[in-house]
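Reader question, answered in our methods column.
A reader sent in the components of a multi-part assembly and asked whether the whole thing could be modeled at once rather than chain by chain. We filled in our standard form and ran it. Here is what they sent:
COMPLEX SIZE: two components
ENTRIES:
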Amino acid sequence: EPEVTQTPSHQVTQMGQEVILRCVPISNHLYFYWYRQILGQKVEFLVSFYNNEISEKSEIFDDQFSVERPDGSNFTLKIRSTKLEDSAMYFCATIQGVLSTDTQYFGPGTRLTVL
Amino acid sequence: KNQVEQSPQSLIILEGKNCTLQCNYTVSPFSNLRWYKQDTGRGPVSLTIMTFSENTKSNGRYTATLDADTKQSSLHITASQLSDSASYICVVAYNAGNMLTFGGGTRLMVKP
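And here is the structure of the entire assembly that came back:
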């Protein structure tokens, strides 16, 4: 079965450094999402992306965050200057089509640790 | 503010037993309600998706119900297996399904 992949599985960085988290969506999927889950807390929506544009974003997704699909395959989340509170699991998810009931397929996540 | 609340927070049952997990939500405009299973350190995996007009939906040993009037949902697991040990997350989609609000999950442990 096709699956969403994410790299790296674990990223450790110093506060203030830039990080880029990568996601390879399922090949025929059109909508892409990033979520984060701070340890022991709920999954939180960050941003959705369609047709090379941000569709929706949450309050969490401030100017420190950006997303892009640079080469038509990878979907990336960049955090420009990491803070301690950015430490979390970051999940990429993708949907095939535009139906509201389409299943979101989640990747395995990247664990980001900011020291 | 859109919210999804789940109960209980955690549950321990014996292998082979049934259990029911609860979800209450205040999300608008409602699009659909989903149940996900999340193994520790992994991404959530979809179990069921229900729209406003659906009262019940099954996926193997998992049966979800939805009462859109009371804004409640439940997930019933039948004949539990050790592999059912995971967090079960209730998620409500809104804005035509483009955005999701997640509940805090119920952590289920199935013991032999």
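What stands out: Chain B touches chain A at residues 31-32, 41-46, 49, 51, 89, 93, 95-105 (CB under 8 Å). The CA atoms of residues 25 and 71 of chain B lie 6 Å apart.
Send us your own complexes using the same form.
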